[in-house]
Amino acid sequence: MRLVSMTIRLASAPYSRFSDRLVLRALRVLGPALCLFAFAAISLTVRAQSPTAAPDSARTLLAPSPPSVAPQVTTNAVTAPSGYVLSANDQVAVEVFGEEDLRTNGRLNAEGNLSLPLLGSVHLAGLNLTQATARVSELYARDYLVNPKVNVMLVGYAKRRFTMLGQVNRPGSFEMPEGSPMGIDLLEAIAMAGGYTRIAAPERITVRRHSPKGDEILKVDGKRLARGTGGANSSFKVQAGDTITVGESIF
C-alpha cells in the first residue's frame, strides 16, 4: 500500500523542489522493485525479438525437392546367339537415344522388311544385330539426325520352318524345335521327315538357301556327315527357309 500511495503522489505532484525530494525518496523505497521490473521487461523484450524456429513441417516445405528422373523403359529383348541373322517374322525393337518418337517394336514382314518412322520400309533380313544397327544408323544420319545412337534388339523369334523334299518318308514343311535359333543339324531334320526311303541317295543332298545376295545351292554328302567325316559339312546346320532335297539312287 505504501508503494502504491507513493507512486500516486509522485505521478500527481507538480514539479518543484519538493518534487525532487519526493523523487529521491521514491527511488530509495522503490529501487529493488524497479530493478526486478526492469529485469523482467528486458527478458520479455529479448524473447520477443529472438527469431522463432520454424516447425519441422515448414522446414520440410521449404526444402528443395530432389531432381526428377526420367522413367526407364525396358524392352523385353531376348539374348540372341552370337552372329544370329534376322529373318522374316522375327520381332525386333529399334531405339534411338533421345528420340522417343522413333521407337519401334514390330515384326519383319515376309520380305524381311521393317517399317520405321521417317524411313519407311527397311530391309533387315539377312543381317545380324550389329549390321542391322549400323544400317538403321546410316539411314537416319543420311537425312534426319546427327550422329544418331541406335540400338536394334531381338524381341522374339519367328516361327521357323524348313522344307524336306525328295527321298524321305514324310516330305513337307516342318517347324524347327524351340531353342534352336541358329538352326538344327541336317540329320535331325531328316529324322523329323521320317528318315530316308529305300531308294534314297544320302550322298546326294541339295540345300537351297535364301540370302541377301540371292539363292544359294549347297551340296551335302549325308553319308560322310553320318560317319563324321564330312569335313566342312560335318556340322551342317539347316536354317529357317531352307529347302532340302534328298536325291534318288541310280541303279
Ranges with pLDDT <50 over ≥5 residues? 15-19, 53-74
The H/E string reads HHHEEEEHEEEEHEEHEE
Mean pLDDT: 76
- What is the helix content? 25-40%
**First-residue to last-residue Cα separation:** 149 Å
Give the CATH level 1 class of the largest domain: Alpha Beta
For the largest beta-sheet, the strand count, sense and barrel status come to: 5 strands, mixed
Radius of gyration: 47 Å
Number of helices: 6
CATH topology of the largest domain: Outer membrane lipoprotein wza fold like
Using the 3D structure, state the CATH architecture of the largest domain. Roll
Largest beta sheet: what is the strand line-up? 7-6-12-9-10
Count of domains = 3
Portion of residues in beta strands equals: 15-25%
Count of DSSP E strands? 12
CATH homologous superfamily label of the largest domain: Outer membrane lipoprotein wza domain like
What would you call the shape?
Answer: elongated
Structural class: alpha+beta
